[in-house]
Amino acid sequence: MRIAIFGGSFNPPHRGHLNSALYAAAQLKPDKLLIIPDHQPPHKALEAGSPTPEERLEMCRLNFASVPGAEASDIEIRRGGKSYTVDTVKALQHQYPDAELVMLLGTDMLLDLGRWYKAEYIMAHCVIAPFQRCDEELVYIEAKAEELRRRFGARIEIIRSTPFAAASTDIRDLLRQREGVDLLTDEVYSYIIRKRLYGAQVNFPWLREKSYAMLKPKRIPHVAGCESEAVALARRWGADEFMAAEAAILHDCTKRLTRPEQLELCRRYGYHPDELEASSEKLMHAKTGAEIARQDFGCAPEVVSAIRWHTTGRANMTLLEQIVYMADYIEPNRDFEGVEPLRALAYEDLNRAMLLGLDMSLEDIRSQGNPIHPNTLAAKEWFEKLVQEHNSET
After folding, report:
1. What pLDDT, on a 0 to 100 scale, did the predictor assign at position 85?
2. For labeling, which of 17, 75, 163, 288 is most exposed (least CB within 10 Å)?
3. What is the number of alpha carbons within 13 Å of residue 367 lying toward its C-beta?
4. CA 190, CA 298: separation in Å to the nearest integer?
5. Quick one: how many helices (H) and strands (E) in the chain?
6. Parts of the chain belonging to CATH 3.40.50.620
7. Which letter does DSSP use for residue 106 in this model?
8. CA-to-CA distance for 281 and 387, rounded, in angstroms?
9. pTM for this entry
10. Phi, psi (5° rounding) for residue 160?
11. Are the C-beta atoms of 33 and 2 separated by less than 8 Å?
12. Of 331, 353, 192, nearest to 248 (Cα)?
C-alpha cells in the first residue's frame, strides 16, 4: 500500500494546493493521499484570528474532495501541540505498518529538509516527493536531491507540476477586500463566507451569481434594480452601501418557493412564523430569506434584519431597513401609478417617503382583500408620529 502525505497549515487551502494534489495523485499513484492540516506549525504561529484546527480540517475535506484517494486526516489535530512531521510519520507507521509512505514537499521545504527535526528518520522511512513547479527549479531540485541521497540515502521522486500563483497569506488579505474568490474552490469560499472566517467580506459578483441562481429569471432585473437603488439611497442618507447591496442582492432569494417549501425552510432554520406569515409565502419569503442570509451567507445582523422586514416593515425601523424596504418599492423597473413622486420623495425626505409607501401598500392590500400584518400597521403609526414630530418642529 502506498500512502502519500500532504501536510501544511492550509490556512486556507486553495486551488494551488488542489493543483499540487492532483499532480501527485496522477504521478505517484498512491492508494491513499492523506491531507494533514497541522495543529500548530512548529516554527511559526498561526495568524491571530485564524480558524480553529477543526475548521481548517473541514476546509481541507471540501478543497480536496475531487482528488482520487484523498482523505483529510485529523491525526495532527488530535495529537495537539506543535506538529512535528516525524511524529506524524511514526503514527502512520503504527497505523499502516506495511505501507510505503511518500512525503510531498514544496521546493523551499526540500531545500531546508536536512535541518528538520529528526530529518534522518523521516528520510529513512519516507520517499521524498518534491514538486517541480517550473523548469528553472529543476536544477536546484536535482542538486538538492543528489545531496540528500548522498548524505541520508534519501529516496526521491520529483513531481512535475505547473505553477498556480496562490499563497494563503495573500488570500487572507484579499478576502478582507472582497477578493480572492478565484483562488479558492467554490466549496471552500462558500464555507469561508458562511462563517466569515478571516474577516472575509463577500465578493459581490459571486453573491449575485448565488442569488440569481435561486430566482426565477424574470425576477433577476428586479433584484438588480433593487441593489442599485439601495446603494444610491444608502449613499444619499449615509448608510453602509456595502450592507445595503448585500441585503438587496439577497432580499428575494426565496421568493420563488411555494408555501410548503417556505414552511420547510422555517423548520430547517428554526424560525417560527406567526399565523398570518404561515398562511402566505409572500410574507414568509422575507423571513426565510433573512435566515438564508444569516446561516448560509454569514451576513451581519443589520443585513439580516433589513431582509427580514423588507415586506411588512415594522415600528422603529433602522435606516438600513428603511432603505431596503424603499429600494424594493421604487427600483427602476417599477412602473406603477405614483412611483415617480415616491422616488423623488425618497431622496428628499425618507420618513415621509416611507409613510407614503406604506399608505400605498396598505391600499393595495385592502383592494385585494388580503389581511394586513400588524407590523405594517405599527410601521405606519410609527412613521406618522415621526412625520408629525418633524412638522411640529418646523
Report:
1. 93
2. 163
3. 6
4. 10
5. 20, 7
6. 2-166
7. -
8. 32
9. 0.93
10. -80, 125
11. no
12. 331
Query: 51: cis peptide before it, omega within 30°?
Result: no
What cell numbers appear for 74 in the block? Answer: 485529523
| CA 169/CA 171 separation, integer angstroms | 5
Other C-beta atoms closer than 10 Å to the C-beta of 65 total 12
Structurally, at CATH architecture level, domain 2-166 sits in 3-Layer(aba) Sandwich (3.40)
Residue 342, pLDDT score: 98
pLDDT recorded at residue 108:
84
SS3 73: coil
CA atoms in the 13 A half-sphere facing the CB of 169? 3
The grid coordinates of residue 192 equal 469561508
Report how far apart, in Å, the C-alpha atoms of 38 and of each of 9, 77, 78 are: 5, 6, 10
The CATH homologous superfamily to which domain 204-393 belongs is Hypothetical protein af1432 (1.10.3210.10)
Average pLDDT along the chain, 394 residues, taken 10 residues at a time: 96 96 97 95 78 97 97 95 92 95 91 88 94 81 90 92 87 98 98 97 99 97 99 99 99 96 94 92 95 97 98 98 99 95 98 97 93 96 93 75
Return the pLDDT at 394.
67
